[in-house]
Amino acid sequence: MSTVQIPEVLWAQRSNAEEQDKNVIYLTVMIPDSVSPSIDVENDKLKVEAKSANSTHYAVEIPFFKEIIPEKSKYHVTGRCIYFVLYKKDAAAEFWPRLTKEKARLHWLKTDFDRWVDEDEQEEVAEPANPFGAGMPDFSNMDFSQFAKGEDDSDDSSEPELEEEDKTPESK
Predict the structure, then answer these.
(1) Which CA distances in Å does 43 have to 68, 100, 102, 117, 134?
(2) Residue 153 within any structural domain of the chain
(3) What is the dihedral of CA 34, 38, 41, 44, to 10 degrees?
């Protein structure tokens, strides 16, 4: 008989009274190597169930503090986790005080500090280019020429050449 484990869930949020598209919840459900995940996004809750490659059975149901828009919400399954971008139904400047209806402390639910922005600073922070966090970072503005600063690839360097070993046997 296999037991069901609750996966670790990370979350962060953004809010904006004027722009509905900036009212989002970022969720990351940590299920390594998930096989055929079952995902049900409803207006008041999220259900995720999957098995990992090593046959561990994971399941979690999250009743939301307020309603979301399931039709607009998105998710992406990677080898390490499942990323969600869930759109809040009500456009408001205030953050939700918590993710769930329950006020209880849930050991598996944690703040995603990589995505978290304080309520009063969220207008100053740019939205992530890739909200799912997958793939490589954006290197388009990076100047790679600075990495080799001071190095010269030419053969006329001032370093001494290595001497070859004398391969003749020594006489006694």
Answers:
(1) 5, 13, 16, 24, 25
(2) no
(3) -100
- Asked, for residue 126, whether it belongs to a domain, the answer is no
pLDDT on residue 164: 62
The amino acid present at 99, given as its one-letter code, is L
- Is the pLDDT at 24 greater than 60? The verdict is yes
Q: Note whether residue 135 is domain-resident.
A: no
Alpha carbons 92 and 22: distance in angstroms, whole number? 10
User: Using one digit for the tens of pLDDT, what is the confidence trace for 69-86?
Assistant: 999 999 999 989 999 999
Find the domain containing 89 and state its range.
4-118
Confidence of residue 47 (pLDDT cuts 50, 70, 90): very high
Helix (H, G, I), strand (E, B) or coil at 150: coil
Place of tokens 């922070």: 125
Residue 58 lies in a domain: yes
Model confidence pLDDT, tens digit, residues 9-21: 999 999 888 888 8
- Read off the CATH number of the domain in which 10 is found: 2.60.40.790
Q: Which amino acid is at 90?
A: D
- Total domain count, the chain: 1
- 75, 83 contact by CB (below 8 A): yes
